[in-house]
Amino acid sequence: MGLTSRHSSRFTPIDFIADDTGLVARVQALLDDVEPDRAQMLEALHRIQHELGYVPKEAIPFLAAKFKTTPAMIYGVLTFYSEIRTEPPPRVEVQWCSGPACLLKGSRNIRLALEAEFGCGMNESAPDGALGLRLVQCDGTCHLAPLVRLNGRYIGPLTVTDAIQLARRLKEEARRA
To answer: 137-158 burial, b for 16+ CB within 10 Å, e for fewer?
Structure first.
Protein backbone atom coordinates (compact mmCIF):
# COMPACT_ATOMS: atom_id res chain seq x y z
CA MET A 1 0.00 0.00 0.00
CA GLY A 2 1.60 3.23 -1.13
CA LEU A 3 1.37 6.48 0.73
CA THR A 4 -0.34 9.28 -1.07
CA SER A 5 -0.70 12.82 0.04
CA ARG A 6 -2.77 15.60 -1.31
CA HIS A 7 -1.38 19.06 -1.28
CA SER A 8 -3.08 22.03 -2.78
CA SER A 9 -0.54 24.42 -4.19
CA ARG A 10 -3.18 26.84 -5.33
CA PHE A 11 -2.80 30.43 -4.34
CA THR A 12 -5.07 31.68 -1.61
CA PRO A 13 -5.24 35.48 -1.48
CA ILE A 14 -4.53 37.16 1.82
CA ASP A 15 -5.94 40.38 3.13
CA PHE A 16 -3.45 43.15 3.52
CA ILE A 17 -3.24 45.27 6.60
CA ALA A 18 -4.57 48.78 6.31
CA ASP A 19 -2.08 51.39 7.38
CA ASP A 20 -2.69 54.80 8.89
CA THR A 21 -0.13 56.60 6.73
CA GLY A 22 -1.82 56.04 3.39
CA LEU A 23 1.32 54.38 2.07
CA VAL A 24 -0.46 51.28 0.77
CA ALA A 25 -3.12 53.48 -0.87
CA ARG A 26 -0.34 55.36 -2.70
CA VAL A 27 1.17 52.05 -3.83
CA GLN A 28 -2.25 50.85 -5.02
CA ALA A 29 -2.73 54.04 -7.04
CA LEU A 30 0.74 53.70 -8.59
CA LEU A 31 -0.01 50.17 -9.75
CA ASP A 32 -3.59 50.64 -10.87
CA ASP A 33 -2.75 50.03 -14.53
CA VAL A 34 -0.24 47.20 -13.94
CA GLU A 35 -1.49 43.78 -14.99
CA PRO A 36 -1.32 41.06 -12.32
CA ASP A 37 1.32 39.25 -14.34
CA ARG A 38 4.56 38.31 -12.59
CA ALA A 39 6.47 39.55 -15.63
CA GLN A 40 5.49 43.07 -14.57
CA MET A 41 6.57 42.67 -10.95
CA LEU A 42 9.96 44.37 -11.42
CA GLU A 43 8.36 47.20 -13.33
CA ALA A 44 5.95 47.66 -10.43
CA LEU A 45 8.75 47.66 -7.84
CA HIS A 46 10.76 50.19 -9.85
CA ARG A 47 7.70 52.39 -10.23
CA ILE A 48 7.11 52.38 -6.47
CA GLN A 49 10.75 53.09 -5.69
CA HIS A 50 10.93 55.89 -8.23
CA GLU A 51 7.91 57.58 -6.66
CA LEU A 52 8.57 56.91 -2.95
CA GLY A 53 12.35 56.40 -2.88
CA TYR A 54 11.89 52.82 -1.64
CA VAL A 55 9.41 49.94 -1.60
CA PRO A 56 7.76 49.98 1.83
CA LYS A 57 7.48 46.65 3.61
CA GLU A 58 3.88 47.55 4.43
CA ALA A 59 3.12 47.12 0.71
CA ILE A 60 4.26 43.48 0.60
CA PRO A 61 0.84 41.94 1.34
CA PHE A 62 -0.81 44.17 -1.29
CA LEU A 63 1.89 43.24 -3.84
CA ALA A 64 1.44 39.54 -3.04
CA ALA A 65 -2.29 39.80 -3.67
CA LYS A 66 -1.77 41.87 -6.83
CA PHE A 67 0.67 39.37 -8.34
CA LYS A 68 -1.12 36.28 -6.99
CA THR A 69 1.82 35.03 -5.00
CA THR A 70 2.95 34.90 -1.39
CA PRO A 71 4.44 37.66 0.74
CA ALA A 72 7.57 35.50 1.06
CA MET A 73 8.02 35.50 -2.72
CA ILE A 74 7.63 39.29 -2.87
CA TYR A 75 10.13 39.72 -0.02
CA GLY A 76 12.53 37.37 -1.83
CA VAL A 77 12.37 39.53 -4.96
CA LEU A 78 12.79 42.73 -2.93
CA THR A 79 15.88 41.47 -1.15
CA PHE A 80 17.43 39.77 -4.19
CA TYR A 81 17.87 42.97 -6.19
CA SER A 82 20.40 45.21 -4.47
CA GLU A 83 19.09 48.35 -6.16
CA ILE A 84 15.66 47.96 -4.59
CA ARG A 85 15.33 49.49 -1.13
CA THR A 86 12.91 48.47 1.59
CA GLU A 87 13.71 51.42 3.84
CA PRO A 88 13.65 55.16 3.08
CA PRO A 89 16.99 56.31 1.64
CA PRO A 90 19.31 58.46 3.73
CA ARG A 91 19.54 62.16 2.93
CA VAL A 92 23.18 61.62 1.85
CA GLU A 93 24.40 58.30 0.55
CA VAL A 94 28.00 57.20 0.05
CA GLN A 95 28.26 54.40 -2.48
CA TRP A 96 31.15 52.01 -1.86
CA CYS A 97 32.58 50.13 -4.83
CA SER A 98 33.01 46.40 -4.34
CA GLY A 99 34.81 45.78 -7.63
CA PRO A 100 38.02 43.73 -7.87
CA ALA A 101 40.34 46.69 -8.50
CA CYS A 102 38.98 48.55 -5.47
CA LEU A 103 39.21 45.45 -3.29
CA LEU A 104 42.79 44.76 -4.38
CA LYS A 105 43.72 48.34 -3.51
CA GLY A 106 42.32 48.21 0.04
CA SER A 107 38.71 49.30 -0.22
CA ARG A 108 37.66 46.87 2.52
CA ASN A 109 39.46 49.05 5.08
CA ILE A 110 37.77 52.13 3.62
CA ARG A 111 34.41 50.40 4.04
CA LEU A 112 35.20 49.54 7.67
CA ALA A 113 36.24 53.14 8.36
CA LEU A 114 33.04 54.54 6.81
CA GLU A 115 30.86 52.08 8.74
CA ALA A 116 32.59 53.03 11.99
CA GLU A 117 32.28 56.77 11.35
CA PHE A 118 28.65 56.64 10.19
CA GLY A 119 27.56 54.13 12.83
CA CYS A 120 25.84 51.85 10.32
CA GLY A 121 26.60 48.83 8.20
CA MET A 122 26.62 48.44 4.45
CA ASN A 123 23.23 49.09 2.79
CA GLU A 124 22.02 50.78 5.96
CA SER A 125 21.47 54.31 7.17
CA ALA A 126 22.80 55.95 10.31
CA PRO A 127 20.27 55.98 13.16
CA ASP A 128 19.27 59.58 12.37
CA GLY A 129 18.74 58.79 8.67
CA ALA A 130 21.10 61.54 7.57
CA LEU A 131 23.90 59.39 6.13
CA GLY A 132 24.08 55.94 4.67
CA LEU A 133 26.29 53.46 2.87
CA ARG A 134 25.37 51.51 -0.23
CA LEU A 135 27.22 48.75 -2.00
CA VAL A 136 27.69 49.25 -5.73
CA GLN A 137 29.35 47.10 -8.34
CA CYS A 138 32.30 48.04 -10.50
CA ASP A 139 31.40 50.38 -13.34
CA GLY A 140 34.80 50.59 -14.96
CA THR A 141 36.29 53.55 -13.11
CA CYS A 142 39.16 51.35 -11.90
CA HIS A 143 41.78 54.05 -12.52
CA LEU A 144 40.32 55.80 -9.45
CA ALA A 145 40.42 52.70 -7.22
CA PRO A 146 39.73 52.50 -4.39
CA LEU A 147 36.79 54.85 -4.68
CA VAL A 148 33.38 55.86 -3.45
CA ARG A 149 30.61 57.76 -5.18
CA LEU A 150 28.86 60.71 -3.63
CA ASN A 151 25.96 62.39 -5.43
CA GLY A 152 27.08 60.80 -8.70
CA ARG A 153 30.63 62.10 -8.28
CA TYR A 154 33.59 59.72 -8.02
CA ILE A 155 36.02 60.27 -5.16
CA GLY A 156 39.27 58.37 -5.44
CA PRO A 157 41.80 57.04 -5.20
CA LEU A 158 41.11 57.07 -1.47
CA THR A 159 43.14 56.20 1.57
CA VAL A 160 41.59 55.20 4.88
CA THR A 161 42.52 58.64 6.21
CA ASP A 162 40.76 60.29 3.25
CA ALA A 163 37.65 58.18 3.92
CA ILE A 164 37.59 59.14 7.60
CA GLN A 165 37.97 62.83 6.73
CA LEU A 166 35.18 62.56 4.14
CA ALA A 167 32.87 60.82 6.64
CA ARG A 168 33.54 63.41 9.33
CA ARG A 169 32.92 66.27 6.88
CA LEU A 170 29.63 64.70 5.78
CA LYS A 171 28.56 64.16 9.40
CA GLU A 172 29.31 67.80 10.20
CA GLU A 173 27.38 69.00 7.13
CA ALA A 174 24.44 66.78 8.13
CA ARG A 175 24.46 68.26 11.65
CA ARG A 176 24.27 71.79 10.25
CA ALA A 177 21.48 70.97 7.78
So the answer is: eeeeebebbbbbbeeeeebbeb
